[in-house]
Amino acid sequence: MEEFMLIFRHEDGNKVASPEQIQVWMKETMDWIGGIAARNQFSGGNGLPFDDARVVRANHVVTNGPFGEIKETIGGYVIVKAASVEEAVEFAKGCPVLQGEGNSVEVRKIAKGDGIH
Questions:
Q1: How far is residue 104's CA from residue 26's CA, in Å, rounded to a whole number?
Q2: Nearest in space to 40 (alpha carbons), one of 10, 100, 8, 81
Q3: Model pTM?
């Protein structure tokens, strides 16, 4: 099996949900991850808060994140084990992040030293 990163993209990370809605989404996300883990295909993951971020550019220029020049933000990721990118995509299709308008899940194979460019 290969490992794939499922990257959660939020169209507008500045939209604030109610604490109740956040709790619902967190439970749905934990249930979704639990289903993947039950198949022994969950490798790990984390949420990425929108505050306390920095961007480092050439010449050591550092700016505060989260990336004010773009609307889309990355809210987190999980790593899954799958036989193919198609199987990883099937996991992504069940991700609760997709309930948010304009949100998406990017699926990327993790290079294990054999595909780094």
A1: 17
A2: 81
A3: 0.83
Q: Tell me the pLDDT of the chain averaged across its residues.
A: 86
CA atoms within 13 A on the CB side of 111: 5
The answer to the question of residue 6 being in a domain is no
Q: Backbone phi, then psi, for 108, in 5-degree steps? A: -130, 130
pLDDT tens-place string over residues 47-66: 887 777 888 889 998 887 75
Written as one letter, the residue type at 68 is: G
Question: Among 89, 84, 100, which Cα is nearest to 29's?
Answer: 100
Q: Is the pLDDT of residue 114 over 80?
A: no
Which domain CATH number covers 96?
A: 3.30.70.1060
